[in-house]
Every structure is written in structure tokens, then in C-alpha cells.
Amino acid sequence: MLRIAICDDTIGDLSNMVSIINDYKALQRDKYKIEYTAFNSAVDLIAAMERGEQYELVLLDILMPFITGMDAAKEIRQFNQDVKIIFLTSSTEFAVEAYSVGAYYYAIKPIWKEKLFILLDKVISEMETTLGKSFLIKSNTGLTRVFINRLEFAEVNGRTILYHLTNGSVIEATGSMTELEKLLSDNVCFIKPHRSYIINMEHIDTLSQREVKMQSLALVPISKANYPIVKLAYINFSFKE
């Protein structure tokens, strides 16, 4: 499902965008589910996202009162790094700044249906490629998408899960080992060497009887009972790779 937020303080432009999205929604009826919410102020958009409303795509006007679209994008990025933002504006002066907040595209008004359809097709195509290889968690800083190939290992301490990523960052979230195992169960690259850890075998450097050395040089313990299971799983995984 593609969830879209449309934000523009000019009623005519907002109505035009809603009309285009409705046409695209009808076109995709039998292929892809699309939902949208329209906002006439960035304040309302930010408030909705802070309440936990989730969107994969934000169509965002820049020149708005109180909070500009650019400032809104900066706030959105504080708690959602993954949502795609397409700026809609009548001016080219913000183009460089737009990409500093990770803009997906910078569109100059008027917005034509054909051009937006192409952009929406591209967004859906990328989602279909990546969403099956990632999962969304509610971390302590907001909703965060974790990509499987970037997750090196996860450790559980009580009701706290620490997701260790390949770039060295750590995402803290609430959950149990049971919930974590269920979340990762469809991915054959993960195995549990210890009651408190799950590792991604794609990122193993060396394996010994007592611990796993990850490519980041982090050391993950292996329980005596789990070592034969982990060793066999890693051999089979490496062979298939």
C-alpha cells in the first residue's frame, strides 16, 4: 500500500493534486492500494506524523505561512528518515536546499498529471523492490525503516532491542526476543547464536566456538549448545551464497 500526504496552503493547487491522485488511484485500483490525506498547512501535517500517522510519500509545497515546506521537511526528517518527499513549488531557488533534506524530487508548478504519474510509478516500483527487504520499527526516536542488508546483529536485554547497523549506528526499540524472531523469521540470513542475540550471517567475519566476530569487529557470544547449529547454518548459507 502507498500512503500519501499532500500538503499545500493554496486551495486550488491542493484540489488539483487531490484530483490527480484520485485519477492515479483509479488507474491502479486492481494493482495497488493507494490512500491519501490532504493538509492545507505544514503544522497539521507535522502534528499528524508526530501522532504516528505513516506515509511512504509526502507531496509538499514549499512556500507556506507559519512553517514552510522546507522547515517542515527538516522536522519530518528528525523522526522519519525513510519517507519520500517530493517538493512542489513555483520557484527554483530552494532546489539545492531541498536535496539537503533528502528530497526525492523537486517539481516546478504547475504540476501536470502525466509527469506526476511517472513519478508515482517510480515510487511504487522502488517500494516493491525494497519493502520486501526491510521492516519498520517504532524506535525511541520515531518510526524507522531497517533494511535487512544493513542490519549486522540485534541484541535483546529485557524489553529493549538494540539493532546494530553496518554503518555503526544503533537503533533502540522496545520488544522481546520472541517478537524479534518473528520479525526476522522470513529471512534465512539470520540465526540465533545466543539467547540474547540474533546475527546476520552476511556480515560474519570469523566464527569460533565461543564467539562470532562480525565484520565491524563486534564480538557476539555463542552458547555451547548453539555452536554446532550456528556452524552448520553458516556453512550452508555460505555455500548457497
From TrEMBL:
Q: Name one GO molecular function term.
A: DNA binding
Q: Where is the HTH LytTR-type domain?
A: 135-204
UniProt entry tagged with the keyword Methyltransferase: no
> Is the keyword Cell wall biogenesis/degradation in the record?
no
Response regulatory domain mapped to chain residues: 3-124
Tell me the domain of life.
Bacteria
Q: Name one Pfam family in it.
A: LytTR
Provide the positions where the record notes the PTM 4-aspartylphosphate.
61
This protein's UniProt keywords: Phosphoprotein
PROSITE patterns linked: HTH_LYTTR, RESPONSE_REGULATORY
**Known function:** May play the central regulatory role in sporulation. It may be an element of the effector pathway responsible for the activation of sporulation genes in response to nutritional stress. Spo0A may act in concert with spo0H (a sigma factor) to control the expression of some genes that are critical to the sporulation process.
Protein name according to UniProt: Stage 0 sporulation protein A homolog
Q: Which organism is it from?
A: Natronincola peptidivorans
Q: Which lineage ranks, top first, belong to the organism behind this chain?
A: Bacteria, Bacillati, Bacillota, Clostridia, Peptostreptococcales
